[in-house]
Design brief:
Shape: globular
Distance between the termini: 44 Å
Order of helices and strands: HHEHEHEHEHEHEEHEHHHEEHEEEH
Low-confidence stretches: none
Strand order of the largest sheet: 2-8-7-6-5-3-4
CATH topology of the largest domain: Aspartate Aminotransferase, domain 2
Number of strands: 13
Largest sheet: 7 strands, mixed
Strand content: 15-25%
CATH class of the largest domain: Alpha Beta
CATH architecture of the largest domain: 3-Layer(aba) Sandwich
Number of domains: 2
Bound molecules: pyridoxal-5'-phosphate
Helix content: 25-40%
Radius of gyration: 20 Å
Structural class: alpha/beta
Amino acid sequence: MLYKRMPIEKESPEEIGYSNIRYNLSESSVTDIKMGELNLQLNDLKLEYIGHRGKPELRRLIVKDCCNLNKENVLLTNGAAGALFIINSSLLTVNDHLIVVRPNYATNIEVPRTIGCSISFIDLQFEEAWKLDPQKIEAAIQPNTKLISITSPHNPTGMLISEEEINEIIRIAELHNIYLLIDETYRDTCFKTPYPITATKSKKVICVSSLSKAYGLPGLRMGWLITQDETIMERFLAAKEMICISNSALDEEVAYQFYLEKEKFAITINQKAMMNFHLLKEWLQKETRMEAVLPQGGVVCFSRFKEDLNIDTAKFYSLLMNKYQTMVGPGHWFEMPDSCMRIGFGWTDDLVFKKGLENISAAIEESLK
Ligand SMILES: Cc1ncc(COP(=O)(O)O)c(C=O)c1O
């Protein structure tokens, strides 16, 4: 496959260097956790090859609240990104058709594009509060449609698909015998998703999540996919074995010990994110040159300049970064115009976040034509 780097990764804060960004509002996760905060017992851990599906105790914990799922339905992967790669590359060929939502986390679009399958995009609209209309998915189905790919809670908009809509999309997928990928990487973030892991609902659903976004452990690279379909699970396992045999024994053990206590961490993490969310709402009320649909999930808000704002967008981003040392996620990371920007409110403390928002206002002021 002819891989091409994605702007969201090429321009990511970790590639630019965290120390070069003082006000980092570009992140889509909560604050990263340090090893020392985790109180881990690792001395007895043997650094051997481990079971290819992943640590059974962790897989069991991930689905412990889902009565019709068990550890055999879970495959641990190298982050949610690893799961998305395995699913897309296992299910799609050049002869297949995919229906995918846009904007989206780039991997959900770029992996299928690299595979070379044909793609129908369901373009979400600001004016429709970024809502996904299940009927648009049904209308896009073709005889060779193999996969429908949606993300909820959604990145970059924070839109949450309601349970009723999820059920309707599952009905459509089942009726047409199409797999449905639901990227749920943000389901445990501060707003909570008010329905169970969606793979509980149907054999057609494959869902994906990880410890990166809601818990601040992206450096672990620990994610998973869940499906009730044993046949495709076998294929996903084959793909994983070809890529990496198994995950790292160390990552899985750290993830397991963290998972046992994750609720304890979640309280502080979520309080902090909600405090920043209130600051964001206050700022949006004052900053009349911007508009946004408030998120219902995740820790990001996809805001934009008002349409009639006469602004030099390139100058805005240049000033924001170079003069104000502030970073947001520009629209082009999501195949959208740069008049849109993703503001992450989960990663920084409140003082940094507030100053970052003020810096956005200052950069707008200085970029008006
Ligand atoms: C919707 C979505 N899915 C998956 C990922 C990948 O996350 P991970 O760190 O678990 O690989 C991201 C990262 O930004 C994301 O936004």
